Amino acid sequence: MGKNLRLKAARARIDMTQKELAEKIDVSRQTINAIEKGDYNPTIKLCIKICKALNVTLNDLFWEEEDDEKN
Question: Could you give the CA distance from residue 14 to residue 29 in angstroms, rounded to a whole number?
C-alpha cells in the first residue's frame, strides 16, 4: 500500500484538516496521518467511517485499480 493521496485530496476538497477528520470519526490525528502516508492499513470499518465523513465512496479512496499500482 502506497501513500493514500486520494484520501488527502478528498480531505482538502472539503477543507478538512487531519485533526477535524480524526475527531469526526473518533481516531487520533496520527492515525489519519499514518493512513495518508501509507504506514497504516485501516480496517474496512474505519474505511467506511472515513468515506462517510468525506462523502465519498470506498472506490474513490481505497480500491486501487491495477493501473494505479504500476505507477
Answer: 17
